[in-house]
Amino acid sequence: MNSAKNLRSVDLNLLVILDALLTERSVTRAAARLYLTQPATSHALERLRLLFGDPLLERRKGGMELTGRAEELREPLRDVLDELQRLVQTPDIPLAELRQTVHLAMPDFPAILLLPQLWPALQRVAPGVNLVVHNWTDNTLEIARLQKGEISLVLSTLETVPSDVEKQHIGDECYTGIAALGHALGAQPSLEEFTAWPHVLVSARGSQSTPFDRQLAALGVQRRVGMSVSSFLSVPSIVASSDAIALIPRSMARHWADTSRLQEFTPPVDAGSFSVDLAWHKRRSTDKAVQLVAGLVATLMDRIVRQTGVNPA
Fold this sequence. Notes:
About 45% of the residues lie in helices and about 20% in strands.
């Protein structure tokens, strides 16, 4: 009886404001997000502090920070709001009438191959669904963002995921070599020829080595990484205008083959493969727009990977 009485006294609008405050960590930004005035949002925060018996946000050097109690509330609150949203949502909205924005995160590969196909495919079936594509940074961070509700989907190479996250394995991609058209390296270089030229390495963290370099070290050889870049997008122009070579996903090499002055070669040492996986939080499993985008991403990525001759798992 007491719990029912307490629930009747709770203004559910406060929970929406609390979610914005915990996400933004700022009264000003939370107010802007909810189209409220700053005084109204500040007043709501005071009511929330009384409701939970905790400061929730505390001013520290550099801005506002969440208290321990606020951190504990973030995920359960997000789950509650999602459940409430599902309760009031009409479940049988036709795809063509959906009005929603879906947030997804992915690295530049596969984004540069996927997005030009994903957008028109989505527009054909659900023109009211918008996409916000976030740059992938780190799998641990992206999974945490899924759990917090900041993004809806992650497309990357994912290994073990938490129990509250669903993962779909789409396929496997392998690496191949590229060099400038007419490069002296040839189509099937020896190990000595392969290591004689400078390499362009792609690393989001600015690394100058990869597990592939450990493979070479085990064979008693070392390559020279002449340049490390953060994005695959700059690789074709660098390679096409120099004597440097690079290892990139095969589907990207095939994509660029007809539009740039590049030639493909087979590395003398197997450069390995990597999985292409899609993930979403379980609370998004019944979200019609998110699952529509997930289905399109899976179908298109499967086609992209298969076209390169790599067999998906």
